[in-house]
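User: Okay, second chain of the day. Same drill as before: sequence in, structure tokens out.
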Amino acid sequence: MKSSRSDTTEPLNRTDSLACIPRQSDTVQWQELDNGDILFTYAIPLSRMFTALHQKFSKNKAELPTKKLQLDQMGSFVWNLIDGKNTVKDIIRIFAQDYKVTTQEAETAVAAFLKSLGQRGFIALYGPTD
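Assistant: Same drill. Structure tokens below.
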């Protein structure tokens, strides 16, 4: 997951990680579907070679190819909790209560999901004072 901390600093410990506040990226495009699922549309990052090929052969040279990702009910539930106010710990607690799982199960699932969102650039984690 992205962090506002420098890459040269040590990784966050568990307590500090749970205190972080995830925030949705301003650059990601998403919409809520009629069934409540979240649908992301994002540009596929291309190497310089593929960018050159795309620009040479594409009808719309300015528009990069996009990819779509639809979250399921649980993923959409967590996404809606990422409001810039809830900490990771808050999200885990709410998830555990709503889905009637243990805190440990919720922490494992939510942490993996947030990591995946961070790797895709959909969220960033900030410390409580950032």
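The radius of gyration is 17 Å.

User: Thanks, on to the next one.
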